[in-house]
Amino acid sequence: MARLERDKVSGQMTTGHEWNGIKELNTPVPSILWAFLITATIFSVSWTVLMPSWPGINGYFRGLLGVDQRVAVTQSVEEAAVERESWTSRIDSEDFATIQADPDLMAIVRETGAALFGDNCAACHGTNARGNPGYPNLVAAPVMWGDDPETVAETIRVGINGTSPEARYAQMLAFGRDQMLARADIDAVVSYVETLSQPELAAGMDAGMLAAGASIFADNCAGCHGEDARGMTDTGAPNLTDHYWTYGGDRATIRHSVYYGRAGTMPSWEGRLSPTHIKLLTLYVLDLRANEQ
């Protein structure tokens, strides 16, 4: 028979159970815990009765209050659409210059455009739009196809080297891989291209090699990049005289570009984004460029 006794230290009665000299106290559950459990039980039962809860065969218990989150979300979306209509109609109907001159509309463009860019463009061009290896800097570098609003919007719409039948196409030939130029000629033109953006390098190079490189450039590269190597928007060829490089401006990367060629791809956003969103992205990118200048 279990023997009950009072613990000398705590003053609590024991349960009479003992294991290896350790006696179990009969400590009562704290009142605050009982209060918490009772309150939680009342709340749980009340919530189950008042709010949508238990599933059934043909539906679910909708609760005495009749709360329906689907209705609430639908109503919220409709209200947001009505609110947006006040400015989306203006974005759709007004030309780029008019929108850019309106501070209130441009505030909306900066807020909405940043979200659109982050969701659709930042993975390639970076969250700050300053580019990643293989993807151009949209803030400061010259825009290869042109930076007027209509051209930028068209580029976003149709993409580059993509699947759209209207896509812009631009490809740099693989002069080495396809044996269009000899190794020595590639080395010469690479040296010449290096000096276009870094003229100070010319002092340490062979003058005859640079002259040969200039001649090779004129015969093979100027048709796309221009005689002055400043790029051509008709061909989407980049400016080679500045410090903005899509793939990299070090000698090894330039040589890789000349040897293997380049053909960057940008998806067509038509069908993925609405015309309003494409226009917003265009305005957003142009605003980034304007603030950089």
UniProtKB/TrEMBL annotation:
In terms of superkingdom, the source organism counts as Bacteria
Pathway membership, UniProt: Energy metabolism; oxidative phosphorylation
Coarse class of the protein's main subcellular location: membrane
Q: Name one GO cellular component term.
A: plasma membrane
Where located? Answer: Cell inner membrane
Task: Return the PROSITE patterns for the record.
Answer: CYTC
As for family, the record states: Belongs to the CcoP / FixP family.
Record protein name field: Cbb3-type cytochrome c oxidase subunit
